Amino acid sequence: MFEVLEESIESLRLLVGALDPATLDGVEAKGLVEKFAELERLAGAGRTLAVHRVAETAAWADDGAFRDVGNWMASITGMTVGRSKATIETAERIRALPETEAALRSGALSDVQVDVISAAAVADPSAERSLLESAATEGVKGLKDRCARVEAAASTDQAERYERARVGRYLRHRRLSDVEGLLELRGPLELTSGVMAALQPYESELFKEARAAGRREEPEALAFDAMVQLADDAATEKLATGGSRAPATITFRVDHSAFVRGHTVPGEVCEIAGVGPVPVAVAQRLAGDSILKALIHDGTDVLAVSHLGRTIPARMRTALEELYPECAIAGCHTNRHLEIEHNTLVSERGPTALWNLTRLCRHHHAYKHAHNLRITGIGTNRNFVPANGPPPDSLLQSRDPAGSLADRSSCVVDRAAVGSYAPQRQEHGVLDVVGIATSARQAPLQRRASIGDSSSTFKEEQR
Question: Which end of the chain is more exposed for a tag (fewer CB within 10 A), N or C?
Answer without folding.
Answer: N
